[in-house]
């Protein structure tokens, strides 16, 4: 405990020093102070970490060497250079596995696809792809999404609309995507999205995990490990989240193992990994958790930012409404693929607010990046996807503007950008397998809402990014709803 108290005193002294010197700073680039490194600049911007990394990248030409305190192993290279991203994620992919450092920070994900490397990762990816390419998959997906819209989303929104009450759309979207991914992965609907808005510990645990994992990136390892041992701070919430995941997922895994004759994602994984794991029960838990994290947080976050952006850009909302008017009250998968302007609005949302804010890499062998930077083995590299979408050098002078039109070609078709310029779905061999599924779900949900309601942001409600590895709104998205009459 004495170590932790000394660390707090140490930070307090740094804060005092920063407070006394900040009026002299004319740049976002931090000073590399003796002993403490660049920590004072970080602490001064602790409440705006994502925008701070954007400032650093913009002033340093897209790549910045951050220096941590002595003996803390916190030095890291921040890069948003598309050439570097292409090199790390594609051209020299084999030199940048997840590695032990990533696994240490993301230990709660166990042996799932996000932590897997080499043979295990290839097996994970192939098995998941087998499920996504099954002839019945898209019919199952469409039915699952529409059932949740009809029996979950619309009754909840009708309830708040008729009662004249504000509603947090971010909470609604997180519940929707949580129920949907649970049904798809576990064949179980927890019904967290209902009029009662029940507290489901597992669903809320994802937010605590995302917050804690970001702070593991910026705290010295010794500090967060001490917090973990003492059961305090964000590490306490991380432990509680892990317990909530176990209590929720293991019963579903046990049920899936009994129902061996059903086609399901868990059944596929059990079959493929039978000879590759010593504990199939824990492995299935880890696999399910990874897929739930991908399906719940990323889609829910994107829908939240989409509705915030179109609420601030009425002309874009009008164009989306005009496009969906011809589709009727229920949009199917085939119709969703023809919604070009809505697709552009979603891509623009993902550019400005990518759900996964950053990626963490480390080379296993020394490497030279295209920008000229040399990396030793195990050097920490942080790629800020949030910052890439806000770089003038990448997207032009209007990079901070919401323009769905930038994704539409002169012929009226969807424009595609290279993943190293638009890494919202990752890049290279690790590109997200659920990309198509995510677009389908987001379009079906967005059209269901916009066809039935006017959505207005509550006056005075503050919307800003949360300090988290998943880019959520810090205070949710409070809106009022009114019915559209035809």
From TrEMBL:
Heme binds at residue 432. It comes from the Eukaryota. Its cofactor is heme. Gene3D superfamilies: Cytochrome P450 (1.10.630.10). Keywords: Heme, Iron, Metal-binding, Monooxygenase, Oxidoreductase, Signal. Belongs to the cytochrome P450 family. This is Alkane hydroxylase MAH1-like.
